[in-house]
């Protein structure tokens, strides 16, 4: 059962955050601004003042994460421990153990979460919250604004961009990425191995994205990737498969058409060629003015702080209404 018991004020008074995401920057300034709450590192010393702390563990999921969130909960004994599971669409056992170690867990992806309820974690018990979708997390708001402004006037390539890490479970993605790389030699689509991208500096990572007009985003297992938001923030017209779950929730279809986002109809090279031509035409029609609109759309709607704000609201609703599905 959850370690935390409801009682007292339902209001969250502060946020303490730890992240295990590679190349992801915790933007405490943005989190504080968007939530209206003090935001600190979970590694800091807990304050002596009274009030309720939301202890947020942003988990890219590894085998030791259940132990890590328990250690943080001991460090913050009066806090509500929350696990935000960025990889709940695979590595199921590690995700379950991490979720079970927290007071409340929020999946990043709505798909493939039945293993939580089968194992005893469900919304009815108040322990598993609704899914909180992906966002941009590898640059702070200040970094993103500065890097984008500094790149004004820089040329963009017409080549289709898309570097995707190899996952053994991602059979359709692996196969199509390989086929595209072979059939479209002028593109910049490929499977990657290792962590070379993660070792780059924040500005260099942004400049790599900024160098292109369009990019291809194939999910591992139907999931909405953070890379879609990275692409939009850099001004791309992204190409996202039609079967990518959660995109319509995060970005309503009307907004997808306005930005635009091009939907890939099927996992074939021919479909990728057609989608790339559509995306290039859309970028060229709107130019850098429309690219800047996509950039601002992410800044105003899909930064890490926006999602943390949603988590705070969910937790306060849970404390107010009690452990039932209606609380969400």
Give your account of this protein's structure.
Helix 5 (141-150) packs across helix 7 (202-210). Mean pLDDT is 89; it is low at 323-327. This protein is 41% helix and 16% strand. The strands form two sheets. A five-stranded parallel sheet has the order 2-1-3-4-5, with helices on both faces. The two termini are 19 Å apart. The chain is of the alpha/beta class. The radius of gyration is 20 Å and the shape is globular. The protein has helices spanning 28-35, 65-75, 92-101, 114-118, 141-150, 171-183, 202-210, 226-233, 247-250, 253-258, 269-301, 304-321; strands at 14-19, 39-41, 53-59, 80-85, 104-107, 157-165, 188-192, 212-216, 237-241, 262-264. The protein has twelve helices and ten strands.
Secondary structure topology:
Elements: E1 14-19, H1 28-35, E2 39-41, E3 53-59, H2 65-75, E4 80-85, H3 92-101, E5 104-107, H4 114-118, H5 141-150, E6 157-165, H6 171-183, E7 188-192, H7 202-210, E8 212-216, H8 226-233, E9 237-241, H9 247-250, H10 253-258, E10 262-264, H11 269-301, H12 304-321
Parallel strand pairs: 1-2, 1-3, 3-4, 4-5, 6-7, 6-8, 8-9, 9-10
Helix pairs in contact: 1-12, 2-3, 5-7
Order of helices and strands: EHEEHEHEHHEHEHEHEHHEHH
Widest β-sheet, arrangement of strands: 2-1-3-4-5
Oligomer: single chain
Low-confidence stretches: 323-327
Span from first to last CA? 19 Å
Query: What characterizes the major β-sheet?
Result: 5 strands, parallel
Mean pLDDT: 89
Give me the count of strands. Answer: 10
Residues in helix, %: 40-55%
Radius of gyration: 20 Å
SS-based class: alpha/beta
- Tertiary shape: globular
Helix segment count? 12
Query: Roughly what fraction of the amino acids lie in strands?
Result: 15-25%
């Amino acid at each position: 059962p959850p370690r935390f018991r409801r009682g007292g004020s339902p209001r969250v008074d502060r946020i303490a955050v730890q992240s295990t995401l590679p190349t992801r920057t915790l933007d405490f300034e943005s989190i504080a601004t968007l939530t209206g709450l003090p935001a600190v590192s979970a590694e800091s010393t807990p304050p002596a003042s009274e009030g309720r702390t939301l202890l947020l563990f942003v988990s890219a999921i590894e085998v030791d994460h259940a132990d890590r969130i328990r250690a943080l909960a001991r460090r913050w004994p009066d806090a509500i421990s929350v696990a935000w599971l960025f990889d709940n669409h695979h590595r199921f056992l590690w995700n379950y153990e991490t979720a079970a170690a927290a007071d409340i867990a929020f999946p990043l992806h709505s798909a493939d979460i039945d293993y939580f309820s089968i194992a005893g974690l469900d919304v009815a018990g108040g322990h598993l919250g609704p899914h909180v979708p992906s966002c941009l997390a590898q640059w702070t708001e200040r970094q993103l604004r500065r890097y984008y402004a500094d790149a004004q006037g820089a040329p963009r390539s017409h080549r289709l961009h898309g570097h995707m890490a190899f996952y053994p479970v991602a059979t359709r993605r692996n196969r199509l990425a390989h086929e595209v790389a072979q059939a479209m030699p002028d593109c910049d689509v490929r499977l990657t191995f290792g962590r070379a991208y993660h070792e780059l500096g924040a500005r260099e990572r942004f400049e790599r994205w900024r160098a292109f007009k369009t990019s291809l985003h194939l999910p591992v297992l139907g999931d909405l990737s953070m890379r879609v938001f990275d692409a939009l923030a850099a001004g791309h017209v992204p190409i996202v498969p039609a079967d990518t779950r959660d995109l319509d929730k995060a970005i309503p279809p009307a907004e997808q058409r306005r930005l635009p986002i091009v939907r890939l109809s099927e996992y074939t090279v021919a479909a990728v060629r057609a989608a790339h031509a559509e995306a290039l035409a859309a970028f060229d029609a709107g130019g850098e003015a429309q690219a800047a609109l996509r950039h601002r759309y992410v800044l105003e709607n899909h930064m890490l702080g926006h999602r943390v704000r949603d988590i705070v609201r969910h937790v306060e609703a849970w404390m107010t209404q009690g452990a039932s599905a209606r609380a969400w």
